[in-house]
């Protein structure tokens, strides 16, 4: 689908998720330096006001009803753990990225687990108080 496609004309061109984090430095160190998201822009203002925009590749919005959220939690973790919002990042080597994440201070919720939809998924609680999935497509 191109920008010229009538379905895209006037529609969203970017999705940006804005997250307030108490420990800005720890969150930047994790998402930029450990997970490898590219720094697109950074700004500061009066006092201690700061923001950093990190590029994470293609963005999608996945809408799931409560039953589906519980199913995915059961498959990936074995119990319900995810809050209402969970961020998922596709990576090239989920085992390596999971180990690096834990070394950088993320809490391991569930190790990489193969799912019925043929991906290898790990769950982590990261600096910035975000619950995430790291996943690697196996097909």
From TrEMBL:
Where does the VOC domain lie? 11-137
Residues of the signal peptide: none
One Pfam family name from the record?
Glyoxalase
What is the protein name given in its UniProt record?
VOC domain-containing protein
